[in-house]
């Protein structure tokens, strides 16, 4: 499910680096940097915190699953809530899901899947 808003959207990351949010699988915090994982396998390192980028990505179907991760709900393929909390994404990626955010994540994913 890709809305018109996503097709031509562009988010400025840092400097001249821009990215279309529809091509971002997830973001991973790395102290004062953030790694941006793209659908095509490319990985960008940005000199912004995840908290700073969260503001820019929050209106594009992204969800903060953990203090260190933010995922694009369009690429969620499943989740594991027993024996560790994980969110599974396309391309066999997995990210952590915090206990604190588990219920709201499950609720958000459920609503997102129904809307799609």
Biggest β-sheet, characterized? 5 strands, antiparallel
Which band does the percent of strand residues land in? 35-45%
Provide the spatial order of strands within the biggest beta sheet.
5-4-3-7-6
Average pLDDT level: 91
Distance between the termini: 6 Å
Which class best fits the helix and strand makeup?
alpha+beta
Q: H/E order of the elements?
A: HEEEEEHEEEEEH
Query: What characteristic shape results from the CA principal axes?
Result: globular
How many DSSP-defined strands?
10
List keywords for this structure.
116 residues; alpha+beta; 3-stranded antiparallel sheet
Overview of this protein structure:
The chain has 116 residues and is an alpha+beta fold. 25% of the residues lie in helices and 40% in strands. The chain has a 5-stranded antiparallel beta sheet. It has a 3-stranded antiparallel beta sheet with strand order 8-9-10, with no helix packed on it. β6 (62-66) and β7 form a beta hairpin. It is globular and about 40 Å long. Mean pLDDT is 91; it is low at 1-5.
């Amino acid at each position: 499910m890709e809305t018109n808003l996503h097709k031509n959207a562009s988010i400025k990351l840092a400097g001249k680096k821009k990215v279309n949010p529809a091509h971002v699988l997830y973001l991973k915090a790395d102290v004062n940097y953030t790694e941006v994982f793209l659908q095509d396998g490319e990985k960008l390192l940005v000199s912004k915190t995840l908290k700073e980028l969260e503001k820019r990505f929050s209106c594009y179907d992204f969800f903060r699953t953990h203090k260190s991760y933010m995922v694009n709900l369009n690429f969620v393929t499943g989740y594991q809530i027993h024996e560790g909390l994980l969110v599974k994404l396309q391309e066999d990626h997995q990210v952590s899901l915090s206990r604190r955010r588990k219920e709201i994540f499950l609720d958000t994913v459920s609503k997102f899947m129904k809307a799609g």
